[in-house]
Design brief:
The protein is mainly alpha-helical. The chain is 54% helix and 11% strand. The chain has eleven helices and five strands. Strand 3 and strand 4 form a beta hairpin. The longest helix has 23 residues. The protein starts with a helix and ends in a 6-residue tail after the last helix.
């Protein structure tokens, strides 16, 4: 019985279809019956098609902007090509699209929409942020309770849901225009985006060079004193204190910093 179940599973999930898979596994017959309406292969094909369409529909939900831009038919063909290269290896549909951004970098669709791989990467990063572990966040109340001599040694690090990603396109504009159904004005521009989750909502925004540098340091845990040194080297000592205060206030309001 187990051998039969394994065979049926292999045939149903075979990217090339049941008939070709039968040749691969050198099986001349199937352990299921046909009738006057449908052969045994055609019956199994129904389950195989349902398997594919369930994955495709899940990926529609995961990559809505990509779907909007290329349309239903092209998306169907894209996912067919993708699953031939990257059939699911995890029991959860959550991970079915994990290789799509990489796959798109070498797919013919990129000729017409050269920003598509970046767009798929952004949509994947939004899902990653949503599913990332929780963490208690640093609050304004905690900061106000610090004594003056504790400030420079205050340990700062950003929440585990946060990700900093560099793109070759102004991908946040493309993403937003796609979801609104507006005309895409694709601009090639190096763009750093920050993704993070607060409560049950995922946020993202673009970063200037200095803030990106600071947040990358905070990924490794840094003291406030070290942050001040970095900013001072970039903008000068006179401007550093107001700028650090501004960043610290913004990060706390956004729920970006973990409790030390």
């Amino acid at each position: 019985m187990k051998k039969t179940q394994k065979l049926l599973w292999k045939l149903i999930t075979a990217p090339e279809g049941v008939e070709k898979a039968l040749k691969v596994y050198r099986k001349k017959s199937l352990p299921i019956l046909g009738d006057d309406r449908l052969s045994n292969t055609e019956r199994l094909d129904i389950y195989a098609n349902m398997y594919f369409f369930r994955i495709r529909d899940a990926l529609k939900e995961d990559f809505p902007a990509v779907l909007k831009i290329i349309g239903e038919d092209r998306f169907h063909n894209l996912i067919t090509d993708y699953l031939l290269k990257y059939p699911p290896t995890h029991w959860s549909l959550r991970y079915a699209g994990q290789h799509l951004p990489l796959f798109l970098r070498h797919h013919s669709t990129l000729k017409r929409w050269p920003y598509l791989a970046d767009l798929a990467r952004m949509e994947w990063d939004l899902m990653e942020a949503f599913d990332a572990p929780d963490a208690s966040v640093l609050t304004a109340e905690t900061l106000s309770s610090l004594k003056p001599d504790q400030w420079s040694e205050l340990s700062l690090s950003i929440v585990p849901s946060s990700t900093l990603v560099s793109f070759q396109w102004k991908i946040d504009d493309i993403f937003e225009n796609a979801l609104k159904g507006e005309k895409i004005k694709a601009a090639r521009s190096n763009t750093a985006l920050l993704f993070w989750r607060r409560d049950l909502k995922v946020y993202y925004r673009s970063l200037e060079n200095l803030e990106e540098k600071l947040l990358r340091c905070l990924k490794k845990k840094t003291s406030l004193g070290e942050v001040c040194e970095i900013v001072s080297k970039e903008v000068g000592e006179e401007k550093s204190a107001p700028l650090v205060n501004q960043c610290l206030k913004m990060w706390v309001q956004e729920g970006l910093l973990k409790t030390p």
